[in-house]
């Protein structure tokens, strides 16, 4: 009983929190001098066919905090490949999407 417990929600909720944090325009996620922005995802959606990325514009709605399907779509490995191919300067996304997958599938 002397051990401290760390409360953890299920992985989908943790992933949803990360997703909303990414999509909020008044906050940003930074790693060193790299910044993740949902504008990168908007650029991808506008220049790549939906049959390739499988994202919806609703996936980028920060007000929809319970859109768990969008968390799963953001975790797909092909999304990172598409970002590399079509959106320049997305170094932060390598880290963010990999960590999101770890939170969703391993915790």
Write the layout of secondary structure elements.
Blueprint: H1 11-23, E1 29-31, E2 34-36, H2 38-47, H3 50-53, H4 68-74, H5 77-86, H6 91-105
Antiparallel strand pairs: 1-2
Helix pairs in contact: 1-4, 1-6, 5-6
Describe the structure.
There is one protein chain. The protein has one domain. Helix 1 packs across helix 4, helix 1 packs antiparallel against helix 6 and helix 5 runs antiparallel to helix 6. The protein is built from six helices and two strands. It is mainly α and 107 residues long. Strands 1-2 form a two-stranded antiparallel ribbon. Strand 1 and strand 2 form a beta hairpin. The chain is globular.
Question: What is the structure about, briefly put?
Answer:
Helix content is 55%, strand content 6%. The chain is built from 6 helices and 2 strands; from the N terminus they run H-E-E-H-H-H-H-H.
